[in-house]
Amino acid sequence: MSEPSTEWQPRRFSFGPFVLDADRQLLHRGGVPVRIGGRALDILAALLERPGEVLSKRELMARVWPSTVVEEENLKVHMVALRRALGDEAVAARYIATVSGRGYRFVAPVRREGLPSPVASYAPGAPQTSTLPAEVAHIFGRREAIEGILRDLGESRLVSIVGAGGIGKTTVAVAVAHAASRHRADGAAFIDLAPVADPAFVPSVMAAAHGVIMTGADPLSGVVHALKSQHRLLLIDNCEHLLPSIAAVVDRLIRNLDGIRVLATSREPLRLRGERVFRLGGLACDIRPVAPSEEARGFPSFALFEARAAERAGYRLTDADVPAVAEICRRLEGNALAIELAATQTTRFTPVQVRELLDDRLHLLRLNTTGVPVRQQTLGATLDWSYSLLSERQADVLCAVSVFAAAFDIDGALAMSAGDADDVLDTLSQLAAKSLLATEAGDGKVTYRMLETTRSYVLEHLRRSGKDRAVRRRHAQHVCALLEKASSEWSKRPADEWGATWGRLLDDLRTALAFAGQDTQERALLIRLTIAGSSLWNHLSLTHESHAHFSRAVREIDAAGLAGSVSEMNLQLSLASTTLFTRGFAPEALTAMRRALEIAEQLGDVDHRLRTLRLMYSHQKFAGQHDAALRTIEGFVVLAGTAEPSALPDGQTHLALAEAYVGRLRSSRERLERLRRDHMRAIDHPRFARFLYDQNVDVLNILSQVQWLTGSPDAAAATAQAAVDRALKLEHSLSLINALATAACPVLFLCGHRETASRHAELLNDRVARHGIVIWRPVALFYRAALACARADPLPDAVQALGYAIGEFEAIHHRARMPFYLAVLAQALARCGRLDDAEATILKAVECARTQNEGWCMPELLRVHAAVLASTGRGADAQAVLAESIASAQDMGALSWRLRAVVDLATLWCAQSRQEDARRMLGEVHGEFTEGFATHDLVVAGDLLASLG
Fold this sequence. Notes:
Rossmann fold, alpha/beta, 43 helices
């Protein structure tokens, strides 16, 4: 397949009567140019690129004035000019909203043209949506409703099916979704909110439903990114208990995604602008009491009753039973679930007896409705009646298992309810026969699930019984024990197998944490649950969610009497790790690491000392503290070598990276080649969780960089691609993003493989946006802009985007490779004729490299400085700096940097008629290469050498 073009695409935005050509800095209104300044246009372009999102004042100032420090007043002045250009105050407010204390947001619909499309060649990167539940084979009496909702979906982007609990909203919605998905290019996704108790988890549930792994602070931004070009129906089921949160989520999705339609089921509307509400009533049951059975079967309520009774008891409607069944259906107001529950009683009673029992329970409920939630009153009579028919044992087991938020098995039921396995299993079977539990069989075992309406009702009984706290505590302890078992298997089973077994516990973990977090007597259980859940959160990459739980648990450590314990050590280490991903290299991350290391040393815990040292090394490396990082990883290697040899390969891998950063390239490459030869594991090795990333991917990432630096560009490109391929096979997002950010993008960019580099940069941008990983977002921005600047005549916007990316690095204190990033910016500035800015930037880069001891790129910084000097007529100074660059590269074995500097010096000598010296010098360096002759630098060097004869 041919690679996509890397040409910088024109960016055009249309909104209202306006069209902005951002590259040409032209704004038109109805085809007529609008007079407006360049800074105001830059602000408008920034807002239009991220419509609906709040851009802080700092972000906007970094974007519009990338190389200059300005006061906030400057921004305000240009914002006033921009709003004036868009119209009077009222008109302008329709486009740009001020978010008090935060920044500005573009609030009108935007049509974008000429933006790069998502990368199609990576199937694993495509959104993986939850499939629709199977369509019910026969739906009674809902054809007109389904057709009406389909018409509404054709006219509105949001349709809510509203009705009482058990009325059949989900059944109808699923049928509608199946029909509608056939006309949507990207089908439909199903999001069930029934198990979600905390509204804070709505965004993460939405993200999970679309294959968006939640690692950043705003998972919904990942969903928006993943669905940007999609034409999909979202079926969001059971919204009523989370209305404010789900309404906010749906509103944001609809505002940002033109191709999305939302179908929601709820007991009340979402109350959003443009929402179509379809109120679903009961099944028709207004039949003559003396009608024959054949006529009765024409009414959906009768047909449903007979179908369910036939399934349970082989029942067939007779003329004599019509009056009783008619009364049952009428009393139940055509509620589908209520009718099904009534029909199951025909295993024990005649329809006449069922009607009489129902009368009694309706009477009782009318006398005792105080305090019953509104959402339960419609089905309350039938459920109360069904509940009253249970034996004491059946009722106890039903209440006990109602605390499960998701499916449970016999072991779960035994943990909740006293009794032997045969007794509990028999009771569960009886409850399933009464339609109070649904059963699912698979993988040689049976699991049970309670309908949400039934569960809500039974939980109320449990609360009134006074046993609620005891049962919920047993549930939390059971979930904790399962997760602790899961954690013990984490390093012993393949990832997909482990996830299939334990991933189902997420909703129950959330439920258990909600219980433990509300009771100060359960602090120790809360902490134990949080630690036990860490493997599950890590597997699902729910970094933001886990960070919130780790933060809360750490706050409870002292009160729980666990200061200095293994529990605190685990929590502090987890808090440090998740802080890095969600907040960047913040000081609190280092504080947590130091506390974890202190405890590990006091306890003599080697494994946690290693984990903490590894994390501290990463923090120091990213912060540009390369000498400190080298000392830390050397300490790691010494400790691993004496106390935990299994961790030694990982330590050696990152010791090689630390050596590379300070310029010890020969030692680094030797170490990495040895690791690749002796310690590479099979692709199906069970886990890589010890240090967050797959170790083999880490080896390949670092080796590819060092291979390029030391003069093996073909090997470097192949190694970088191997790292990406392995991460894709592992289906581990953090490893893939790491491979793209540290190997594929930089190495392919340096090799000059611009088309392939562009493809990888787009994939990196997609994954970072989808997963919200703070530390890698600037890398994606940088390489996309750097590739645009590599063209013969870089556009000002591309250069500006480079500056913006560097500003983002600085905002999160990401200092590693900063000298190199600044050098690329300096080159771009020089090529645009901004020589003063270029010189200031490259001098800043040199100073940064010396401060951070980032020796690996010093030859390139000196070469770029020399190029700027030569462009300003200081040829002698340029030659001196190039000589320093060549010597530096030769000392550290950086053959690729040395070639670049020699090409530049040979070019200067040719201008001075020193062709023979140039030929001899260039030929010597060119001859040291044994591969890579099709890469950009070697092609340039070869052409120059040929011209010199």
